[in-house]
Amino acid sequence: MKRLLTLDLKDYTDDMPVFEKHTVRAIILRDGKLSMQLSGSGEYKIPGGGVEGDESHIVTLVREVREETGLLVIPASVKPIGEILELRQDVFQKGVKYICHSYFYFCDVMEQTVPTQMTQSEIAKGFRPVWEYPEVICRENDAVQTQPWQKRDTEFIRMLLDGKEF
What we know:
alpha+beta, Nucleoside Triphosphate Pyrophosphohydrolase, five-stranded mixed sheet, four-stranded antiparallel sheet, 4 helices, 11 strands
């Protein structure tokens, strides 16, 4: 998949142990709005999450979108966009270099929805599924940016707004 962007905080050293993760992110558009997760503190997050075991990207995307938003992805509609690579010191394990490959996909969803199945962490942070305009997401994330992944999601949405060819 084509690399769209590399976000490197350069706050690590090459002799640190490495934790590498592969995630998928769903870009679901409806009436000019994006499907997002919104936290109680106002942080917008693109639906998606980590690949588990030998799951394919599509299986992970379908599972994560269902869990986080209650939306049901139509697997045949999934189209690859590109990857954002993040390099930084791990937020949860100081002294560990974190490498995250986030793969973005356009996808369509069914009209029906199901109840969300968020993680305890997402529930504790007050996340809920919403539809929002990209401009609002960027403005609000810029105002409350406290986590590195907010920059990843906001930068990707800016690429959409700027009309980047995928």
